[in-house]
Amino acid sequence: MKVTEHIKNAKGKSLFSFEIIPPKKGLSIQQLYDNIDPLMEFNPPFIDVTTSREEYVYIEKDGLLDRKVTRMRPGTVGICAALKYKYNVDTIPHILCGGFSKEETEYVLVDCHYLGIDNLMALRGDAMKHQRFFEPTEGGNNYAVDLVKQISDLNKGKYLHDVIEKPQKSNFCIGVAGYPEKHLEAPSLASDLKRLKEKVDAGADYVVTQMFFDNKKYFAFVKAAREMGITVPIIPGIKPIAVKKHLQILPQVFALDLPEDLINAVEQCTDVKAIREVGVAWAIQQTKELLEANVPVIHFYSMGKSDNIKSIASKFF
Ligand code: FAD
Asked: Contact, 199 vs 150, CB < 8 A?
């Protein structure tokens, strides 16, 4: 079922969902199941599965370094199919512009269609590790809006190069990313919101936000988006802080601000257990306030760990 239908059927009740990352290449899917099992009692209507970009690895051969391209966490669509049929839950593969030609993307979209996957998250992806800025892949989509257009075209039965005479139409519900504190490359929040509006106008059905730690930022973002004419659901993304390094990594990678109270509380902790408790307590406060504001869904970034998400979800769902 589509995310938008789940939201409609909930009749104003906020839903619980989460995002997982595929296991590293060569590891068993069982560890994923072990992390998902404890969260299924909260009845997530859908689970997102991320896609990782390709990266370079260097293999030593005859004293020289040979550069190879690989994906360290492959299997997104396969995992979506496995989870969908194991747990009877909707699964949402993240589809990226970066690293894929439009042809390869069409191939993946057709796979998803045949597998009965109803929702896709359309994303540009980040630059590769050695790149300073994102560079589009040859023959690929440049921005998420272009990918949204490609998926929307398929929903109309328009395949690449129009080689099919009686096309089978897909009917994907399309999610896109939104940034309450603006995307790190965007010159301003207002210009980033215009880009978000372009994605919605191109066919996106809902938005999932980047993580934020101050709900005021989310509420202001939703207000600004509504004033701009973006009417689709805007699902807040929440991540509990789990290690002290998050204080540096999260602002650096996601260009977001952490509230002083949260920073102080984490800095006073003397062990990881205490930091996790602070992170969970903070996320519980955020969740409580978001639920009081009747958000459609609360989407948790699990990063492959379920115990802290379970501690939060068990209070509300
Ligand atoms: P876009 O919407 O294309 O925007 C990228 C930047 O370009 C923005 O600054 C925007 O303002 C600007 N822009 C957009 N259109 C134009 C235009 N026409 N001209 C000029 N500038 C423009 N990454 C992964 O690798 N894998 C994942 O699974 C993944 N999942 C994610 C899930 C969520 C909920 C979120 C919020 C992010 C996720 N990301 C993931 C990260 C995402 O790929 C990065 O944040 C990426 O840098 C931007 O992706 P986007 O889809 O927002 O890009």
From this structure: no
Q: Is 195 in the pocket of ligand 1 (CB under 6 A)?
A: yes
Residue with CA nearest ligand 1 atom 24: 125
CA of residue 124 to ligand 1 center, whole Å: 5
Ligand 1 mean position, distance from CA 59 (Å): 31
In the chain, where the domains are located: 3-313
Q: In this structure, which long-range contacts are made by residues 153-162, counting pairs with CB atoms below 8 Å and at least 24 apart in sequence?
A: 154/106, 154/109, 154/113, 155/203, 159/106, 160/102, 160/103, 160/106
Q: Tell me, using a 6 A CB cutoff, whether residue 202 lines ligand 1.
A: no
Note the CATH architecture for domain 3-313: Alpha-Beta Barrel (3.20)
The structure's pTM equals 0.97
Residue 148's alpha-carbon distances to 105, 183, 216, in angstroms, are: 11, 18, 29
The model's pLDDT over 90-123, given as tens digits with 9 standing for 90+, comes to 999 999 999 999 999 999 999 999 999 999 999 9
Q: How far apart are CA 175 and CA 117, in angstroms?
A: 13
Query: How far is it, in rounded angstroms, from Cα 175 to Cα 120?
Result: 6
50 lines ligand 1 (CB under 6 A): yes
